[in-house]
């Protein structure tokens, strides 16, 4: 009964938002508004509460895929240039460093989410003065976090590399890459703040353009620094530093221009303790989630590093291909989150079920060709990253893809269900499923990877060419096992949602009432 009262209370809120003094959103979608001073029309977000769910989701998620492609190009470029134009050890060094950079990115991503959500709320309420204060507050607090992380990186990178058992032959290059990357952290943080503001203002095209230009430029500058200037791994790192820096400066400049166009009264307030509190409440859970995932990946990397540079290089190449698929699924999960949130707010609970089924078909359509591609053409794709790769490196990467790709159908269902849970505010259930997957993968990587390596009476130090294959295969098996268990948990949580248990007549009444709002 409390659920129906809560939904009715939400409907009462939506009934009262038609007048100009009320927040300018309706059923989860910003209404178009115009500024008398500028004559500019505020961009309107998509309404996900009407239309065929399958069509709505495709149209909503398709623009996001463009950004994902270029984001992955950015991530892949350094590894590709290192492996093709420098050597296998350089590829291993860049891949090894990447796992540590993910910790820094986790904090930047949390600041992005916190800023985007907070600014979205204020922008929807037409509180344009607070929008500007929220952006400056988020930027100042994120800058402080960035400085602290830079200190950790500058003073502790060698310790982190030692902690994850980085082999001696790639240690120097890994440390060099990280040292340069850390100095570029301000660009990473402020670029994420800028893209968060763009999203909050309903503009997805501008960050896409910046990301596309930056990604393509990064590839060109990577190749220039490595082949023409012979800078090695340092060239790869400086290329990323330069391209991120230019993108950040341009993005921040455009954001400042956009904010100046928003009408507001009085002098702008640069910092607000109240808005900082609201920002932190949103940002910290996102930081924790991404940080735990990054720490888990680092722990898995530490197990992989015990098997030498061949396995490291094979994993570095194959995990990039795997991340391309998982990120695509995650994008659809983010889309279904927004879809579920809007329809829950509108009282259209039956559309959540319809959206789940439509999203499931969507991700499985993506799974089929990608799983087939990785199983049949994995070696050719691996060679894209490596020049004169050893058979051990290619073999370990291929086994990784062969073991994981058939289970894309499983993990994609998990990410769709997680999207529903996150969009409907069931964060406890969402975090439970996420951490179950992560913890299982880390524990099983240690147990299966190290234990299987010693089944033949070999120690880790003696398994480079004998027990090595068996041990690394054990690590790869941790992924599908973790996925399967976590998927069962996510689906069970989804099945217990109110959209599956509410009586049909009540759902119809809620849907009918929300239509009249």
Key descriptive features of the protein:
single chain; 517 residues; mainly alpha; two-stranded antiparallel sheet; 2 strands; globular; disordered N terminus
Protein described:
It is a single chain. This protein is mainly alpha-helical and 517 residues long. The protein is 80% helix and 1% strand. The chain contains 17 helices and two strands. It has a two-stranded antiparallel sheet. Helix 3 (88-124) packs parallel to helix 10 (309-345). The longest helix is centred in the first third of the chain and has 37 residues, at 88-124. It starts with a helix and ends with a helix.
What layout of secondary structure does this protein have?
Blueprint: H1 2-15, E1 25-26, E2 29-30, H2 53-86, H3 88-124, H4 128-163, H5 168-183, H6 185-200, H7 205-228, H8 233-261, H9 273-304, H10 309-345, H11 349-383, H12 391-404, H13 408-423, H14 427-454, H15 468-495, H16 498-501, H17 504-515
Antiparallel strand pairs: 1-2
Structural class designation:
mainly alpha
Residues in β-strands, percent: under 5%
Oligomer: single chain
Principal-axis shape = globular
Give, in spatial order, the strands making up the sheet with the most strands: 1-2
Largest sheet: 2 strands, antiparallel
Arithmetic mean of pLDDT: 78
Rg estimate, integer Å: 24 Å
End-to-end span in angstroms? 22 Å
Written as H for each helix and E for each strand, in order along the chain, the element string is: HEEHHHHHHHHHHHHHHHH
- Please mark out the parts with pLDDT under 50 across 5 or more consecutive residues, or reply none: 1-45, 455-469
- Share in helix: over 70%
Q: What's the helix count?
A: 17
Number of strands: 2
């Amino acid at each position: 009964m409390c659920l129906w009262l809560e939904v009715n209370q939400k409907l009462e809120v939506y009934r009262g938002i038609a007048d100009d003094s009320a927040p300018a959103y309706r059923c989860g979608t910003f209404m178009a508004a115009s500024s008398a001073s500028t004559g500019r029309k505020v961009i309107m977000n998509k309404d996900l509460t009407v239309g065929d769910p399958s069509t709505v989701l495709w149209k909503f998620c398709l623009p996001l895929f463009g950004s994902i492609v270029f984001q992955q190009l950015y991530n892949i470029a350094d590894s590709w240039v290192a492996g093709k134009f420098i050597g296998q050890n350089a590829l291993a060094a860049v891949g090894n460093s990447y796992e540590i950079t993910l910790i820094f990115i986790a904090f930047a991503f949390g600041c992005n989410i916190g800023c985007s959500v907070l600014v979205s709320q204020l922008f929807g309420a037409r509180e344009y003065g607070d929008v500007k204060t929220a952006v400056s507050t988020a930027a100042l607090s994120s800058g402080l976090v960035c400085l602290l992380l830079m200190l950790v990186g500058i003073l502790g990178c060698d310790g982190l590399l030692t902690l994850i058992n980085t082999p001696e032959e790639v240690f120097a290059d890994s440390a060099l890459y990280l040292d340069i990357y850390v100095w570029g952290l301000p660009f990473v943080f402020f670029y994420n703040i800028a893209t968060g503001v763009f999203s909050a203002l309903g503009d997805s095209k501008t960050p896409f353009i910046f990301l596309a230009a930056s990604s393509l430029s990064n590839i060109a500058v990577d190749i220039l620094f490595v082949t023409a200037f012979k800078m090695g791994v340092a060239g790869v790192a400086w290329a990323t530093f330069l391209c991120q820096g230019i993108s950040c400066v341009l993005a921040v400049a455009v954001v400042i221009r956009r904010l100046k166009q928003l009408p507001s009264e009085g002098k702008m307030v640069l910092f607000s303790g109240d808005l900082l509190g609201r920002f932190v409440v949103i940002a910290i859970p996102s930081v924790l989630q991404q940080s735990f995932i990054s720490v888990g990946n680092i722990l898995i990397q530490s197990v992989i590093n015990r098997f030498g540079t061949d396995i490291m290089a094979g994993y570095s190449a194959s995990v990039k291909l795997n991340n391309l698929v998982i990120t695509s699924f995650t994008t659809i999960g983010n889309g279904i989150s927004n879809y579920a949130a809007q329809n829950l707010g509108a009282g259209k609970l039956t559309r959540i079920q319809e959206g789940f089924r439509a999203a499931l078909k969507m991700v499985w359509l993506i799974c089929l060709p990608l799983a087939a591609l990785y199983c049949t053409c994995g070696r050719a794709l691996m060679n894209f990253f490596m020049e004169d790769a050893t058979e051990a490196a290619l073999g370990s990467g291929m086994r990784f893809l062969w073991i994981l790709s058939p289970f894309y159908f499983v993990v994609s269902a998990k990410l769709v269900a997680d999207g529903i849970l996150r969009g409907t505010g069931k964060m406890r259930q969402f975090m439970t499923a996420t951490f179950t997957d992560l913890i299982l993968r880390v524990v099983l990587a240690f147990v299966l990877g190290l234990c299987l390596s010693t089944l033949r009476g070999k120690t880790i130090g003696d398994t480079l060419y004998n027990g090595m294959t068996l041990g690394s295969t054990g690590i790869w098996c941790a992924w599908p096992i973790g996925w399967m268990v976590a998927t069962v948990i996510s689906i069970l949580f989804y099945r217990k949602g109110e959209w599956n248990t509410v009586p049909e007549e009540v759902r119809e009444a809620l849907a009918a009432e929300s239509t009249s709002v």
